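Run log // design_07
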């Protein structure tokens, strides 16, 4: 065995060559591209015969190897045609057809060769053979008829189309035949073809095309007859809204608006509503264009009927939809239709099974109660209400009582408005209030409704007693406001003052209550009491919206013309907060004051605000202040004061800072915008000088330490020597 050379160095090469590089180099060098064969010039008949003999032998060899490959036959025939040997090419095509007579490409190439060589009769014979063998190949029929038309044989082309139509081809074939007849002005022949076409392909679209054909050629009565025949043809079982829309638009174009209206109504009465959306739209547009007010209302009513039908179909026990539907039907005044709709409505018995399965299903109870109320039997209605309210929610959480409480409200309203029983209504309200667990929660609505009921029955003492009981058992903001509004309507202002005092004892942090109390005193003309109320309010240790309260207090003093007191309030407010909006409001106040030096006072406020915010390092608020100051100087200042403010305006720069997660790990960097103020930049040179001095001192300390270390090394060397 020969010895195999051993590779001593098995380490990878420094320069690695990939398969992609090899392929790229091969492509660049064109290693696989063979040079083209040399061109052969044939100079005499012997050379031509030798060339043809070699080519034919090569083609025949290919055919013997792959007889079923049609491309070989096509190349062979095309080469013979290029040699002007049409007879030989024809023989090759015939041999190929013996191999595969169902190949459409083969037939097309064969006939195209005959037509190129102006052999019309040969091509005609080929087309006859092709359409006889493959009558469903539409390409043959299209090209056959086109050839006959091009050679001027119109009768022959028509005969081809007739033969084709006997096979009942697709719609495009019929339309092609019709266009052929229209090119030669044969209207009657085209009409006859349409007659056959609409029965072979009975589609609404085709009937519509037939009618438009008649209309375009001026046969209006013929177009109308086509539409009428199409309606009879499809009947009532397979009605399509598109057909009726097209029919109505045709009549509309002929200005026969009454005919169009009749067609729309007939279609809407017979087509199911879920398949007549476009029909409703078309009818509405037609009536808006050409109808009167009654016609438009009829369209809208029919559309709303359809909507109610859909809602009822989705939920037959949706009694709200039934009530709306019944009102609509009653407005028409048709007694039979009203009775029919009522019968349909009451046939939908409420879901008593759902009530039995879940007695606290209050939606089911509401549906049941609506049905019972529609019967008008008071005893039955009361019995149903009693059954409904007996199903108390099993838990003392307010969310489960929200729906239940409306059963009591509806019961009380029924007794008051329908039964007109005052004492029974009072009993319903009291039973409801006794049932509610007031220690856990209450419903202010019930207390207020009961009080309003007593007032309607001129029992003011009982109304006040119940509201006082409510405030004692379960005080709430809504109860206080309702009681106060009641006393204001009764003009009992002393009672209002007492209620406001109780309200403020209950919730002293509520700024709205303080403001309304002061507004009441202001309306009554007692400004000293109003001012005292505001003073008490602003001195409270905890408030929910103090900014609203201070603003209301300042506006109160301004409305009275007390400018000095308003200025004192601003100063007191600035002792508590240095918010930029307070400074800006203060400046606007000074500007709007009646003093002659109001502009100078406002400028001083802006200067104080700038110094204050500069010390607090509030850059964004400081920017807002400077922008407002600049606008103020633009409107009320001179050029020097404006330039002074512009010099204070900051530059906006983009900076980066590290982002740390909650656990202290770094998550990268983030960009943010910072503002650099010229006033702050002026103090930085001193800081830079201090930093440079500190760095110099540190460098000196480092140099001294290195020098001492070198001296110690020299001493060690001398001792060792």
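design_07 sequence
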């Amino acid at each position: 065995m020969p010895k195999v050379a051993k590779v001593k160095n098995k380490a990878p090469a420094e320069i690695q060559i990939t398969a992609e590089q090899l392929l790229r180099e091969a492509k660049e060098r064109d290693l696989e591209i063979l040079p083209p064969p040399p061109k052969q010039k044939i100079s005499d008949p012997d050379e031509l015969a030798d060339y043809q003999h070699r080519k034919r032998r090569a083609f025949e060899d290919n055919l013997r190897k792959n007889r079923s490959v049609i491309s070989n036959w096509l190349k062979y025939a095309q080469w013979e045609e290029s040699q002007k040997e049409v007879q030989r090419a024809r023989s090759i095509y015939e041999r190929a057809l013996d191999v595969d007579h169902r190949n459409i490409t083969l037939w097309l190439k064969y006939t195209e060769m005959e037509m190129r060589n102006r052999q019309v009769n040969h091509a005609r014979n080929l087309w006859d053979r092709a359409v006889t063998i493959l009558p469903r190949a539409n390409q043959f029929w299209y090209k056959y008829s086109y050839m006959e038309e091009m050679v001027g044989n119109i009768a022959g082309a028509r005969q081809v189309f007739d033969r084709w139509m006997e096979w009942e081809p697709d719609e495009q074939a019929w339309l092609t035949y019709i266009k052929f007849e229209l090119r030669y002005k044969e209207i009657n022949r085209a009409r006859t073809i349409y007659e056959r076409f609409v029965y072979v392909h009975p589609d609404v679209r085709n009937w519509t095309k037939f009618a438009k054909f008649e209309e375009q050629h001026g046969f209006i009565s013929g177009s109308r007859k086509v539409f009428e025949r199409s309606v009879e043809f499809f009947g009532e079982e397979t009605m399509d809204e598109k057909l009726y829309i097209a029919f109505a638009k045709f009549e509309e174009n002929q200005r026969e608006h009454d005919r169009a209206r009749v067609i729309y109504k007939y279609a809407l009465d017979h087509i199911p509503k879920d398949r007549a959306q476009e029909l409703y739209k078309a009818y509405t547009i037609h009536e808006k264009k050409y109808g009167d007010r009654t016609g438009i209302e009829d369209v809208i009513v029919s559309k709303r009927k359809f909507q109610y039908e859909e809602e009822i179909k989705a939920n037959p026990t949706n009694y709200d939809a039934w009530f709306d539907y019944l009102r609509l039907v009653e407005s028409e005044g048709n007694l039979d239709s009203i009775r029919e709709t009522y019968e349909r409505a009451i046939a939908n018995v409420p879901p008593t099974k759902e009530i039995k399965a879940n007695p606290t299903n209050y939606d089911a109870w509401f549906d049941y109660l609506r049905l019972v109320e529609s019967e008008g039997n008071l005893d039955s209605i009361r019995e149903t209400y009693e059954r409904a309210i007996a199903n108390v929610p099993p838990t003392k959480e307010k969310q489960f009582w929200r729906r239940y409480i409306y059963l009591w409200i509806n019961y009380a309203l029924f007794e008051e408005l329908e039964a007109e029983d005052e004492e029974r209504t009072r009993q319903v309200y009291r039973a409801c209030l006794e049932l509610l667990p007031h220690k856990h929660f209450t419903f202010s609505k019930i207390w207020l409704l009961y009080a309003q009921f007593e007032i309607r029955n001129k029992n003011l003492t009982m109304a006040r007693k119940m509201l006082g009981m409510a405030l004692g058992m379960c005080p709430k903001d809504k109860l206080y406001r309702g009681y106060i509004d009641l006393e204001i309507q009764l003009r009992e202002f002393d009672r209002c003052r007492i209620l406001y005092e109780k309200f403020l004892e209950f919730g002293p942090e509520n700024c709205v209550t303080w403001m309304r109390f002061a507004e009441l005193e202001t309306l009554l003309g007692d400004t000293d009491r109003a001012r005292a109320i505001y003073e008490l309010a602003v001195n409270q240790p905890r408030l929910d919206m103090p900014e609203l309260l201070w603003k209301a207090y300042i506006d109160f003093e301004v409305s009275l013309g007390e400018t000095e007191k308003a200025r004192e309030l601003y100063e007191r407010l600035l002792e508590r907060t240095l918010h930029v909006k307070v400074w800006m409001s203060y400046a606007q106040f000074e500007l709007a004051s009646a003093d002659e030096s109001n502009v100078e006072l406002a400028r001083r406020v802006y200067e104080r605000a700038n110094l204050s915010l500069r010390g607090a390092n509030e850059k964004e608020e400081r920017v807002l202040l400077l922008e407002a100051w600049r606008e103020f100087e633009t409107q009320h200042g001179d050029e020097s004061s404006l330039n002074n403010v512009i010099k204070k305006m900051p530059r906006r720069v983009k900076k980066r800072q590290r982002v740390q997660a909650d656990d202290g790990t770094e998550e990268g960097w983030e960009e943010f915008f910072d503002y650099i103020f010229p006033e702050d930049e002026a103090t930085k040179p001193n800081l830079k000088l201090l930093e440079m001095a500190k760095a110099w001192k540190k460098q000196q300390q480092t140099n001294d330490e290195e020098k001492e270390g070198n001296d110690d090394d020299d001493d060690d060397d001398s001792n060792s020597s």
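The radius of gyration is 51 Å.
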